Amino acid sequence: MMRKNSQSAQRRYGIVAGMSIVLDSSVVLDEVNRFHVKLANGVSFWAPYLANHYNHSQDPNIPRGLGKASSDEIEKSANYIVSLFPNASSEEIRQKLIDGSLAQKEFNYKGVDCSGFAYHVMHALYQKVLGKELMDDLSVPKDDVLNGAQKFEEWKSAYLLSNQEAEELQDDVPMRWVVETFKRKPVNLCRAAGLMSDFSSIEVPVSSMQIGDLVDLFSREGYGPHLAIVCSLDDGVVSLAHSGRKDPSDTGGVLIEEVPFDKLKIDTSKLQVPRDFRAIRRLKSFK
Fold first, then answer.
1. 20 vs 283: CA distance, rounded Å
2. At 266, phi and psi to the nearest 5?
3. Is residue 58 very low, low, confident or very high in pLDDT (cuts 50, 70, 90)?
4. Strand partners, 219
5. pLDDT digits (tens, 9 = 90+) for 175-188
6. Which helix (H) or strand (E) holds 88?
7. Residue 50 pLDDT > 80
8. pLDDT tens-digit profile of 59-79?
9. How far apart are CA 281 and CA 138, in angstroms?
10. pLDDT for res 250
11. Is residue 231 within 8 Å of residue 237, measured between CB atoms?
12. N or C end of the chain, less CB within 10 A?
């Protein structure tokens, strides 16, 4: 049975339709808009894009787990940039957030990729509406766990995985176990494929699409899986929030786009960067 505070939150932030929780658009947009940073000097901007694609063996100064910054971390770094460059434009701030040029290293590389953005937004909604943590519904692919446990010293120092334990790992390893065993940050373990997996979510027909659902997309430029969050639905038009970029030279970042849909598909060819639509997915606790 759900706790009273969770039931109260569901009435406040959405409605319960049958066995499914339908979120209110304003609740989702409140979390999305946290990534629209507004500074005290009047400058505002959407969080820039950053992906974890660097070769760390070639440059050990670049940390792993890029593209997972929270809105608070991005704003804190932006304020540091403004303290150094008071007249910096919004685009100059966005570039400095991700180019690794800042003297205080903890403020570098503060951007967000599609799965990092989705994790932060959906985790906030899980806490606000359901009173639980998103990682309890997510998994980490076995290969990713083995890669971390066998190659990275920070994983090994937290826990030495035996050969037998490695063999007995299931294909979808519960994220909470990985977080607690290897002392990892849950958002750093989150990938688009994990949010789209059958362990974490279910596929629903476009005709049943709801606010808060995830849209499973595939890049036409060879960058692989991508995802967006359904923010609103209105007379054949859906608003999608996601973090992406046009190409590796583009700063990119979080944006909200409106595209048409019908009972069978979303026309994602109308996105600024056209992508192939694959499915609508609903995280398991919202189904």
1. 11
2. -100, 135
3. very low
4. 275
5. 999 999 999 999 99
6. none
7. yes
8. 555 566 799 999 999 999 999
9. 13
10. 85
11. no
12. N
Residue 65 region, left (φ>0) first, then alpha (ψ -120 to 50), else beta? left
pLDDT of residue 130: 93
Give me 286's structure tokens.
Answer: 């919202």
The tokens for 215 are: 């849209």
pLDDT averaged over the chain? 90
The owner of tokens 């100064």 is 61
Handedness of CA 81, 87, 91, 95 (dihedral sign): negative
Backbone angles phi, psi at 4, to 5 degrees: -60, -40
User: Taking a C-beta distance cutoff of 8 angstroms, is the pair 243, 267 a contact?
Assistant: no
Measured CA to CA, the distance from residue 98 to residue 220 in angstroms comes to 24
Residue 145 CA to residue 201 CA, distance in Å, equals 20
pLDDT in tens, 147-182: 999 999 999 999 999 999 999 999 999 999 999 999
- Locate all alpha helices (DSSP H) within 126-208, ordered by sequence: 142-151, 153-158, 163-168, 175-182, 192-196
CA 281 to chain centroid: 14
- Whether the predicted pLDDT of 10 surpasses 90: no
> DSSP 3-state assignment of 120?
helix
| Conformational region of residue 222, where left means phi above 0, alpha means psi within -120 to 50, and beta covers everything else | left
Tens digits of residue pLDDT in 202-234: 999 999 999 999 999 998 766 689 999 999 999
In this structure, are residues 73 and 110 in contact, taking their beta carbons and an 8 Å threshold? Answer: yes
Which one-letter DSSP state was computed for residue 49? P
**Of 97, 129, 123, 179, nearest to 12 (Cα)?**
129
- Pairing between β-strand 225-234 and β-strand 214-219 as defined by DSSP bridges: antiparallel
Q: Which residues contact 217 (CB under 8 A, 6 or more apart)?
A: 225, 226, 227, 228, 268, 275, 276, 277, 278
Contact predicate 155/182, CB 8 Å? yes
Side chain identity at residue 17, one-letter code: A
